[in-house]
UniProtKB/TrEMBL annotation:
InterPro entries: AA_transpt_TM. This is Amino acid transporter transmembrane domain-containing protein. The chain crosses the membrane at residues 74-95, 120-140, 172-189, 201-221, 241-261, 282-300, 330-349, 369-387, 393-415, 427-446. The lineage of its organism: Eukaryota, Viridiplantae, Streptophyta, Embryophyta, Tracheophyta. Residues 1-25 are annotated as: Disordered. It comes from Panicum hallii var. hallii.
Amino acid sequence: MGVGDGSSNGNQQPARKEIRDETTPLLPVKVEEDDGFHEFNGASFSGAVFNLSTTIVGAGIMALPASIKMLGIIPGILMIIIVALLTEASIDMLVRCSHQGKITSYGWLMGEVFGQWGRISLQASVIVNNVGVLIVYMIIIGDVLSGTTSAGVHHRGILEGWFGAHLWNSRPIVLLATALLVFAPLVSFKRLDSLRYTSALSVALAVVFVVITAGIAIIKLFNGTVAMPKLFPELDGLNSIWNLFTAVPVLVTAYICHYNVHSIDNELEDRTQIKPIVRTSLVLCSSVYIATSFFAYLLFGEGTLDDVLANFDANLGIPFSSVFDDIVRVSYAAHVMLVFPIVFFALRLNLDGLLFPTSRHISRDNKRFAIITISLLTVIYLAAILIPSIWDAFQFTGATAAVLIGFIFPAMVILRDSYGIATKRDKILAVTMIVLAVLSNSVALYSDAMNIFQKKEVA
């Protein structure tokens, strides 16, 4: 199946024309021998599941326990499930329209349905979302390995705790080494399926975090040293109700994977597998999210921080507490390092498509591939050094670019119904998604802005 072939027949030879779009896999599924590459026979089901799951599970997992603290356990878990179901529905909308129109990318679909500005809007949203996410990843790695100072309190990083403070383990040096030794090799692959093993390891590391957190919480529960968590939110006025909506962008961001769905779909030999792949990934990730949120909130209670990883910088009240602290932080730092290239993959493709819409595919231009890759890594590295914390900005990104990518754009595509496949149920669901997305995220933006202004007034 070639990049531009919407057929599900994996044995059909692709056409020789080159299709220039921004979210197809960097290499076609099958490339002619005279292009210098060997035939690629299609990605496996498990490899696709791990790649999509890695796209989903990222930095958002660390903010979910704080969302549960704000919403309460029952509404919080219900919201995780609801957002997962809406994510599955929105991806299904994109996949059905794409298969019907024999379209191989999200950007191409937006261009077909809404013209050039539709494509540009999608590309810009993916760029804004992914740049913000990758900067957050790098900041977290710096915090975990080199330490951070917040509100006058210094939290030692792992390397600082093990070896003391030195120039070689300072934030700029550690992040530079990470960019050169870890990120640079991983982002050099030209096909998503090449990352299937690192993706599997990434998912395994996320499971390690969940298992350790759950184990510690259960031990402390049997010892009677954990407080009863609140089941529902505490509402003491209108402001507390508005604040509940600030959890919505975090939940939305936690499930954004739409920009890589077409890339994964294109690499499958049998494109009918994409729906069970999406469902399997969402079930896996939702299970990880629910377990992480529940047990982390049970463990830390009302002391759960916005980034729960920061809670693992203290005595957990169990034997070998410092060892478990280090294991959790190291495993999560490694997880983020392995998620980075998956998100970077879509960022590079969309930036290239936005800057060079008429040029040949980036996989066939090594010079452009290298320049864009190095430039993006440099910008992300410098931003991570200069910006101490962007959690507030991350919430704004989740309420704007992420909600557009995940819900509003897919709903608009199905409402436009350019391919005549939308049912009455599809259109009702699409309208519901747009209304919920616009209202909830508008309130979240307002609440975030008011909180920032109030902090400035107090300061």
